[in-house]
Amino acid sequence: MNEKLIDLFEYTYHFNKEMIKKISENISKVDEKTISLINHTLNAQQIWNARILGEKTFEVWQINSFDTLEEINHQNFLKSIDTIQNRDLDKRIEYRNSRGDRFENSIFEMLFHAVNHSTYHRGQINALFVQNNMKPVLTDYIFYKRR
């Protein structure tokens, strides 16, 4: 199970990196919503990692300096992989969401949500690319596995 989850985070890391690159190469064509969504995508993974590790979280919709996005993505990846390799994925963690409501989920559920959430928002970013006359990045998992 751990190897499969690591594979999903490698996939997430790879395509987050590709999205950052595409935005960087076309910065004059992208809109504020695209910038907001790529930041939110990375912020959310940081938030889930921080909840698991008991660290300070980013704000859900904070806008980070564009030149820090690759490093945020890399740090997110490293922390997620370290968590998978060194924590009991069945352990339940109590946390508060961005509205302050209390919840409890397993580490596995939190990590899997982070992967799924990233996939969802990359799809939204691709739709914005198309609206702005840009080619989307083919981010389907199967394309990642075929390379």
TrEMBL record:
<dbReference type="GO" id="GO:0046872">
    <property type="term" value="F:metal ion binding"/>
</dbReference>
<dbReference type="Pfam" id="PF05163">
    <property type="entry name" value="DinB"/>
</dbReference>
<feature type="binding site">
    <location>
        <position position="121"/>
    </location>
    <ligand>
        <name>a divalent metal cation</name>
    </ligand>
</feature>
<keyword id="KW-0479">Metal-binding</keyword>
<dbReference type="InterPro" id="IPR007837">
    <property type="entry name" value="DinB"/>
</dbReference>
<feature type="binding site">
    <location>
        <position position="40"/>
    </location>
    <ligand>
        <name>a divalent metal cation</name>
    </ligand>
</feature>
<feature type="binding site">
    <location>
        <position position="117"/>
    </location>
    <ligand>
        <name>a divalent metal cation</name>
    </ligand>
</feature>
<dbReference type="InterPro" id="IPR034660">
    <property type="entry name" value="DinB/YfiT-like"/>
</dbReference>
<comment type="similarity">
    <text>Belongs to the DinB family.</text>
</comment>
<protein>
    <submittedName>
        <fullName>Damage-inducible protein DinB</fullName>
    </submittedName>
</protein>
